[in-house]
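Appendix B. Chain record.
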Amino acid sequence: WLKTSEASSGNPSNLCEQSISIVAPMLGVLLLLFTCSAASDAASRLSATSRWAASALDQSEQLDGPLFLQLQVERSRAIFGTQDVSNVTRGGYLHSKSCLAAHGRKVKDAGRIVVQEDCERSCTDDPSCSAYEWYEGELLHDRCFLHPRAPIVTSPSSGRLRYIQCFVKDSHATLGQKGVNFAVHSSVLSHTVLKQNVLTGNHSSPDGMDVNDSNESGNWSANASGYASVNASLNASVVEDANESVANESVQADGNESAVEHANTSAEESTNESSMENTTTTLPEQEEVEEEEALPSKPMSGLLVCPLGPAALTTQSLSKCQYDHIVAEVEALVASLPPQCNATFCPQAHFAGCALRMAGHDFMDYLPKEAVGGSDGCVDMNDPDNTGLAECMYTGEFNLSLKMAWDKFCTKVSLADFIVIAGEAVMKYTRNLYLDVHPGRGSIDFKSNFKYGRTTALECELATGVLPNPQDSCTAVENVFVKNMGLSWRQAAALMGVHTLGRAVPENSGYDGFWTNAVNSRHFSSSYFVEMVAHGWMPERSINGNPQKHQWKKSTATYNESIAGKIMMLDTDLCLMFTQDVKGKEELRAANEADCCTWPFAGDVLTAVDTYNSHMFCGVDISEGSPHSSWRAGFSMENLTIFQAQRAACCMGDSKAADCGSVTHPAGPAARDIWEFATSETVWLEVFAEAWLIATENGFEGALSSLDECPPPAPEAIAYPSEIMTCPDGEPALTTLSMTTCTYDAVTSEVQSLLASLPEYCNSTDCPQADFSGCTLRMAGHDFMDFNPYTENGGADGCTNMLEGDNAGLAPCLVEGEFGISLHDAYVKFCTTVSLADFVVIAAQAVMDFTRDVQLAVRPGEKLDFKAHFMFGRTTAETCSFAAHVLPNPEGSCSEVERVFVKNMGLTWEQAAALMGVHSLGRARPENSGYDGWWSSPEQSRMFNNDYYISILGEGWTKDKAIGGNRQKNAWKHASVTLQDVEHEMMLNTDLCLVFTEDVDGFQQLDAAQERQCCTWPFPADMLPAVDKYHDGVYCGVNISEGGPFSHWRNPFAFDTSLFREQRAACCHGNARHADCGSVTHPAGPAANSVFKFANDEDYWLEIFDMAWSIAVTNGFGDSLKPLEYCESPSPVADDVSSTTVTPQTTTTTMIEKMYTMPPTTIMPYSASAGTNATNATTTTTTTIATTTII
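Structure tokens predicted for this chain:
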């Protein structure tokens, strides 16, 4: 069954071999796998150069596929069967340097093999390593190197082959037969021969594929997916034609018109001898390729879920103040991005351009005859023309999205109205940026003309393929802007002025560059028109190697792309002014074989050049008195020398370059309008406002209403903590200027005294100490989780937006006093010297210290000592509007954890999971967050310990949808059969997703809102230390202690379905056949290993937690924070501190002592064993210090 030619005695595979020799004759291949898994203490592994016999899986159609999860074969030449294999590798992996060898790799009925992580396919020395076959399964190469002579042959069915970020070099690869879905994503195929009808089908496209010096032979399919696509290049490649070839046939692919050279090659002609010499599989005859069906429409409205309730389809009312509020929210998003721009990157411009692109793609689909489309909030996200819109709409390219603003208004404002307002907001904001530099040039007012009442369309199938294709030049402009949208050529040209914002990105449209220089691309101005008339432009063909993408490059002789950025124009831009011929009968097209240069005579554009371009024409200063002031004269036949000099300046130094049409009388349909817009920004803004109004109201005539007047102002609500945390004794300290260890102890003592004054009892509905502790930590967490690394706003600055729904319930513990006490009671004693920002951090540390001591009274363990490395000096932010909607939304699962904790706060996944351990304290309340329940038992919720992780792993959890009837709030409820839910424990997506996923492969994050019900539970043998040491031997409500009736549950995983089902039943509502959430034995969550470690070792969790906490509470403060100053004796820092008793703490060896070494000036001689200072007899001062915890 298994041959291990190079297995040492200590090699796990040797253990496999020994076990197999005993059990294989009885139980066969299945037990072979699981015995190996147990022996290697990991997923199944086969050692170096091991070979899995060809007949091992011949009868595997009887096997249960999911039992082969997470199979790993390392450095192996594995032969996987010669007969149809059913489901054998669902979730299986062939890892590093593995080779699928011999005569046929066959997978049937959704089987799947994943070759991952630098897997080399080096088959040069093995003639049998040549052919892989599969039927309805999937062969996925993920981040692999496929090396020489590794042909791949697929069988004529519906298998799927994918390359993701792979490198294929010097390979004679035969990829694909009829019906095979072939996808290459972000991969490089170098010096590669692709033979035998490489097909792209079923919406798979080679996105990001780079083919260098390659020879592609055979038939490329002409279906909806095509070959050449976004960011795909064929550099120095040869596409061989065969019989009856049809060159340059257009194929739609990812929004690009792709020219694919077609061939109709027989199997014999397409078989390359050198690529097939090691192949033993006979290729079937080629059949006619059937056209694939198009992807179904995916409307934007179906992707944006309103978190507040049902989304408004039509805006019923909207006041001017509400309009301003929406605009302010969108502007705040743009303002939070870095303002800096360089030659390739300008975040504010990119976001603003994307928002306008969204609005434009929405209204440009208007079809007057069908009376559909327009600004209806619906674009088909499956339409390649809309690639990239998701980034600014909902996925958050810069950790920001327009959805973050829409979420605040989604129950009242339709998505259709919101998209229009968002477009107007970014234009207003970027116009104001421009006016900051050029004051007095005129603002733009959208609000006066805005009308609401657009209805969001839930379907927009007719919107696909109707947007203007730039390759169609002014024909496309006329069809869309003039005929469909009803604009004049003048208005159409004015509307095109939005191109001044943002840039074209190859991965979205296939085009590449800014329309103006990078700095101007974040200013809403007339620079688009000025660029067109003050510079020369020449064709740039086959952008990034795509023969279907052509544009115009700036040809001014002095233009430096590395400084100004790549600047370009499309056919649909320049055609408005210029034509290919002098008479104006031929539209301008960069694809035209005859090279020409567009440029206007300088004397005709003087106003534009002088007013808006610093007297520069084609890079030459032509101001009065300059050496080239003669260029300002009007055109005359006697002045041909100047004419040629201007042409040279505009056309890459070539004074004899061919002109595109007439230089002095351009014949484009909007030539005079372009000149006027370049000359007068005021005129352009007026015409633009007319065009924008028509574009955004098309199809809604008679249904829209003018904005309502603002209602009378209501009393101003308290928005920020600094407004409610008042300081009665004087001006509050915004920054803590100095702080001693005694001051820190005094603040800690005050907070802990408040907590100690609360009752210690806990039941299913009440636990005062847990609630107060949880609220204090929630305040600190909501404070530091708003950190923005791009702007360095937020962090532990004592500020969070109290009007946000996410912060409901914080006021009771801050000021209102839910149990007759509040943090304000302690803060007032220090407010003139300690900033609120520092106080909130100390208060949180104080409750963790206190609740940790409560835990240590029950069970020994490590103490906490935050004081040893506390840094003071945080400045309180009095306002923080930027903090709106930046906290993690539990409905977003681990993508939200990643956005906030990993990307924004800079934590590792392990540190993020450790920080989530604060959920050990307190609970979720429906009136605050919409969620309801304890993360642990009520009694445990007043103890700072690792029970949060034990609850995740030691109990089963199933989906609890629509909490309190709110379908936007979904969580997880107890599923362990012996645990009655009288205490109502729960978990959120953001908790369980750290360990579990919806699917076995770990590709789909856990989501309680998903229709499919499943149960999370881990195999008990993986968490025995946690069960024994911290949970009284109880797992899913069953005592599995040594010697007990269920002690056999402690055994490592083996092929024992009855035991497996017993455990599942105990964890999952008594249902032994309940669907699992992902893998039970190898959970694939991003922090699964860490959560197991935290559950099994509380000390390890505390160590990582301490690191994570330190990062979280110092983010954004750089070097401004200082260590505590040493104090020789407790002295009052406020009027009544003298009456405060600082509770001495036991000086035992702590984990912090092991991790931190204080500076010599701040540390006293210390004896851990004695619990006192080692030199406590030397001075009275030393004895006094011993009563405090000085480490």
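Further analysis of this model is presented in Appendix C.
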